[in-house]
Design a protein that fits this description.
Length: about 550
Amino acid sequence: MRIPLRLTCSLAACLASALPLAAQATTVVIPGTAPPAGRGPQLEVAPAAVLTNGIVERDGDLALFVSEASSGPGGSDLNGDGDVNDRVLALLDGASGQLEVTDLDGRFLAVGDGFVAVHRYESDSETDFDGDGNLDDQAIFVRDLATGTTTNLGIDTVSLYVAEGDLLAFRGRTPFLRLFFYTHSTGVVTQIGEDTIDVVVSPQGVAFTQWEAGGPDLNGDGDTQDFVPQVLLPDLTTQFNTGVVSSRLLGFVGSKLVFRAREVALERDVDGDGALDDDVLFVYDSASASRRTAGVIADEFSAEVQLRDGRLFFRQSEAFAGDLNGDGDVLDRILVAYDVASETTSVSGLAARFVDFEAPHALAFLVEEDAAQDANGDGDQLDHVALIWDVGAGSHVNLGRATLPSLPGGIGPRRAVYLTSEFAEGVDRNGDGDIFDQYVEVYDRLSGFSRGFDKPAGSDALRSGDQRRGFLFRVIESATTGDLNGDGDLHDGVVHVMDFASGAVTNSGLAGTFSAHVRGRRFAFVGIESGTDLNGDGDGDDQVLVVGRLP
């Protein structure tokens, strides 16, 4: 859901009024080769330093913390507590580029529908939030985004879990550890119980893993030492016991909770292979109070199971399921998609690793060694080669470029963006004497056109939102590209902006830590001052919020 900001001023005006000691937002002059006339993105730098740990993106909006100490010369006391030592909540509307800097300090945050929750330490504000007479505690404050009012929940808090829809989950002490839920529309706080972990929140319900801890035998196995998922409806009064030991909650699809379990914990050999070392996917439907296995079992899950847009993507072991790719053996792991709502399975027939999904297409990397084929034509079978799988049609397109399994990629309704690897392709593309660099590749699914960029990119290049209009990536100066931000050294990763409409790639002239996003034409990233004082606080060593717009 969109963050409904109350301000209607520009970024510069909002910051000037919110930060009374700071300079106006700075317009960045973009160096390097200019794109077609009038087609370059315009950038503004906020006059406040950004703290990158704790940035939360929700539907293209950002909630983040800015530093009082770096908000203008000598700092600005944004929360009115008499010092400039705090980190203060700020909200960026991704569609308009408008920023609201609040007076609410904190360390961690979560964003729900119409509210932001901030985890605050009493010692930071020298205020007894829960009224127990000391300043040793932590508390949750909730800010209503429509009215700007802030509510102290008044509970000594251990951790802030997650917000989704109308609900917020957090863990507090009363005096023992308890799981709490806050319902924003009613303002009611509900205490669930102790010994709970692994919380998932959705508009259809919430789930948590309950440790039996010597109490009731929740899964009926004769002991009371297991971790068993429980499901609560949004009213937080109707509870369902899944009755299965869980190793990880994956999330909700409608009323269905998806989770995974180890056979050794189940004490059952589900796939009949004579061992208890496999992982099993379960679906529990609170609408019918029923449970079933998803019919998908694999022996090497680790982090490879992903739930995207109502589908589970995973690598299915042929040792259990048979020869899924028709190569005459049962030694491979085949990419499979399981539609949770319809309970149907799509088998790709590809020995591949899942990367990203935008219905109905998945970006994946084919594992040549498993597939026993040279997919990129380089004479070996040692690579991971990019491909697009049409999950609905059951077909795929081999993009023919080699990459590494650890490198990221993304796919939108039209284009796929991913990184190729010099090491995987065995080619020193930039002539720097090594083969350790990566390059951005863009594939247009409608035209079949593929384009690679000639400057090496950082391995975090593609954390940039929906990729419908464009994307951001960092170019590594040290890989023979020159001083791209003009600071006199070659030690930086400098943010570049790709505009799909014009095909132009523009150097922002700013190094970045790369917490970035794109929403439509609007984009934002965290830039690094490299000796130049961009935010007007008198030094040149801050991280700053940069907001721009594609033509």
